[in-house]
């Protein structure tokens, strides 16, 4: 595997390292970033990022807490303006095609006490198409029903969102994104911290969306899921360390570079398993994170 420290040679039709390009789908890239630097106040979260994401990609964004993963999604979604560089999404500037982009933040960013039902949450995904002051039409209700069925949450449609389990909440917010019928999904930790069944179900949905030509960009801390269920991956730690096929996540040298050397190869575990200790890294808001992940299970 090839990191960003050297030149950017081709890797199976995909450029890896500086000037990274992820080739998937056909035609114009869904996302193009050139020389993008972004941050919060005096702190830089992304630095000199060059990245193209082809339409129809199923892309995992991997890196320690505070590496800029969430910032990358916000820049693409037009929620954060970069300090320098250019960003193009679906052929225009971020936000120009807002109806065609669905952004799902981490679960922790949601007020679970808000008195709203599952069905109402999913209907929020239709607002850009309906308009704020218009009532949903039959087509909107049908889109919501289809989205709930896709994530197996039809029976919970009348329940208050805060009464659901963590995995059920993830399903509902993915349903909201699906109901908006986007061309690009930006998902912040959609399969992290859920049970195995929910993770597999959600990944089945994301794979199906990518097969239909939708572009799926998701951050995740679950390296095993990223390596085995996603098609492409970006390894990032403020800058892009590597980008290409998802199996580059199995490269121990790239993992060490991405996670700042906090990588332990554990003898005897299947497939050369790797434990990543992120205890010394901090998230983008300054909070400390403690987790271990096993790769190769």
Short structural summary:
The chain has 297 residues and is an alpha/beta fold.
Q: Care to describe what's here?
A:
The strands form 4 sheets. Strands 8-9-10-6-11-12 form a 6-stranded mixed beta sheet, sandwiched between helices. Strands 3-5-4-7 form a 4-stranded mixed beta sheet, covered by helices on one side. The chain has a 3-stranded antiparallel beta sheet with strand order 13-14-15, with helices on one face. The protein has helices spanning 69-76, 118-123, 127-130, 138-150, 166-179, 196-211, 223-229, 252-258; strands at residues 10-11, 14-15, 20-22, 31-40, 43-53, 58-62, 84-89, 101-104, 184-188, 215-219, 232-237, 239-245, 263-265, 274-277, 292-295. The chain is globular and about 50 Å long. The chain has 297 residues and is of the alpha/beta class. Helices cover 25% and strands 26% of the residues.
